Amino acid sequence: MGNPITELRRRTISAQVKRAVDQAPVFDIHTHLYEPAFGELLLWGIDELLVYHYMVAEVLRQSDLSYPKFWALSKPQQAGLIWEKLFIEHSPVSEACRGVITTLNRLGLDVKRRDLRAVRKWFAAQKPAAHVTRVMETANVHRICMTNSPFDEVERPVWERGFDRDKRFVAGSRIDPLLLDWPAASKKLSAWGYKVARNVNDRTISEVRRFLDDWSAKIDARYLMVSLPPDFAFPAKNDGVRILEGAVLPHCRDSGRPFAMMPGVRRAVNPLLLMAGDGMGRCDLRAYENLLAAHPENRFLMTVLARENQHELCVLARKFRNLHIFGCWWFTNVPSVIEEMTRMRMELLGLGFTPQHSDARVMDQLIYKWDHSRAIISRVLADKYCDLAESGWEVTPPEIKRDVSDLLGGAFERFCKG
Ligand code: RAT
Ligand code: ZN
């Protein structure tokens, strides 16, 4: 029959968990943020918040402006239109819109006034370095993993020049072109002095390996990462899989770096939306099952885009200890789906996963992405502790603290160390 707990006990547990989750600093393991040394690549401020690609997709449904005309507007004009259409003409109830409100509110701005000019004025008075610190403190995020692409022409020279690293930021090496577009990637590697050929022969494999060794060392990459289309197959005989097995996985294994896979994205389903035009698709996770089984000596991180794949992914993680699942990615990063996924993951995996990453592209977004997710993680965890209490197990405050710190980065760090 169990021991039903009182409403008061339930409220006490919830309050303890909420406090622990709010107070625990987060390691945000996947973002598109940059440390301040990257200058303009580090986005922040109200106009950047408003032109976030999640918002662009929404405004172009509300406005009859043609896509090209929207893109011809300046950034402040786009931001102004988004404010008008999504905040003034309709209530901002979508997750991306609510995020802007939470963020401004937590920064101390009076959102009720609906005064974009005043908000812009406030941001114009902030200094980037101090603002980064303020946002990280407000969001209680202590470490941020960037997405660093050696193929990015703006980012690469910054690494080449060198700079003093900001200890709050760690690098994540993003290698999509290497696995998904070898003809283009091979041209770049050749230009950088690696003796690679268009056809993936042994020499090419060892040169790709040399490139990865050099690049990971240069940026001190925490892990390597790729996003993959729904039809990724393994085993398979193609350039991408040859490079994956010949160079990427051996590099990851020998250097002790996990390999992060993000399956399910279909790039440019509506090319007119530019960056906002990517879609999604269900994956056959059998390919990943094969990969995990074939490479037990490698450690893998995974998050999947389709809601329909989430249960299967949990089961995969139960079967393979070399897999750590993380985050509610992109279209799943909305409260209803986060709640469902977090509950299911906890029920199937206990505390051995990382429930969330922010995917923030604009510094200030850390505030809302973590505020909103913290509330859900607290709720789910408190429910689980209440269920346990009804079964006869009482968690202690130090145990709560330990569990929360695992969920907000501790389990990930342990997994990375191996
Ligand atoms: O969530 C996003 O911002 C997407 O545009 C993607 O960047 C995705 O997160 C990715 O890393 O591919
Ligand atoms: Zn991302």
Q: Can you describe this structure?
A:
The structure is a single chain. The chain is α/β, with parallel strands linked by helices. The protein is built from 18 helices and 9 strands. It has a domain of 80 residues: uronate isomerase, domain 2, chain A (Orthogonal Bundle). The strands form 2 sheets. A 7-stranded parallel sheet has the order 1-2-3-4-5-8-9, sandwiched between helices. Strands 6-7 form a two-stranded antiparallel ribbon. Helix 1 crosses helix 18. The longest helix is centred in the C-terminal third of the chain and has 27 residues. The chain is globular and about 65 Å long. The structure holds D-arabinaric acid (RAT) and zinc ion. The site of zinc ion (ZN) has 3 residues, from loops.
CATH topology title of the domain at 46-125: uronate isomerase, domain 2, chain A
Question: Architecture of the domain at 46-125, CATH level 2?
Answer: Orthogonal Bundle
Which percent band covers the strand fraction? 5-15%
Uncertain parts? none
Strand adjacency order, main sheet = 1-2-3-4-5-8-9
Q: How are helices and strands ordered from N to C? A: HEHHHHHHHEHEHHHEHEEEHEHEHHH
CATH superfamily of the domain at 46-125: uronate isomerase, domain 2, chain A
Radius of gyration: 22 Å
What's the CATH first level of the domain at 46-125? Answer: Mainly Alpha
Total number of helices: 18
Q: Gap between N and C termini, in Å? A: 41 Å
The share of residues in helices is 40-55%
Which structural category fits the helices and strands? alpha/beta
Shape: globular
